[in-house]
Amino acid sequence: MDQTKLQYVLYFLVISLLVVFLSFGTIQTLENETNIKEYSGIYSREFEAVQFVECGNDESWWANALPEIDYSLKMKYISRKNTEKNLIFVKVMAVLSDAGKYGHFGMSERELTIHELKYSSNQVPEGCFEWD
C-alpha cells in the first residue's frame, strides 16, 4: 500500500473515532433530557470558570450550555463585565449532574447543563444572592 492510501485510511479511522466519541455525548444528552428542570440563579463567567449559583444555595456549579445559548449568555455577561456587580440573573431549563468533578481542573462538584435560556437580567432579585 502506498503512502497516500495509508494516509487516507488513517484519516478515515481518526474521523470515525471522532464521530463515535462525539456521538456518545449526544446520546447522554438525550438520556438526560428527561431530567430537565427550571433553575433560577446567578451566572458568572471568568477566566477558566463558568459558574452558576442557584438562588438560596451556596454551592457553585460548573455551567455548560449549547453553543447558541452559550453565545447569548456570553453577550449578556460581557455587557456587565466592567460594572461593579458583573453577574447576571438567569432562569434556565437545565439538567444538574450527579456529584463528581466538573469544569476546569474539576473545580466544581456538579455541572449544570443548560438547554434553554428562559430569562436573563442585569437585576438580581433581592434575597437571591448575598453580595460580599
Write a compact overview of the structure shown:
With 132 residues, the protein is α+β, with helices and mostly antiparallel strands.
Can you walk through the features of this model?
- This protein has 132 residues and is an alpha+beta fold.
- The chain folds into 2 domains: 1-34; 36-121, OB fold (Dihydrolipoamide Acetyltransferase, E2P), CATH 2.40.50.
- Helix content is 32%, strand content 32%.
- It has 2 helices and 5 strands.
- It has a 5-stranded mixed barrel.
- A hairpin with a 5-residue loop joins strand 2 and strand 3 (60-65).
- The longest helix is centred in the first third of the chain and has 30 residues, at 3-32.
- The radius of gyration is 19 Å and the shape is elongated.
- The chain starts with a helix and ends in an 11-residue tail after the last strand.
- The mean pLDDT is 78.
Summed over residues and divided by their number, the pLDDT gives a mean of: 78
Low-pLDDT runs: none
The CATH architecture term of the largest domain is: Beta Barrel
N-to-C order of helices and strands: HEEEHEE
Taken from the alpha-carbon principal axes, the silhouette is elongated
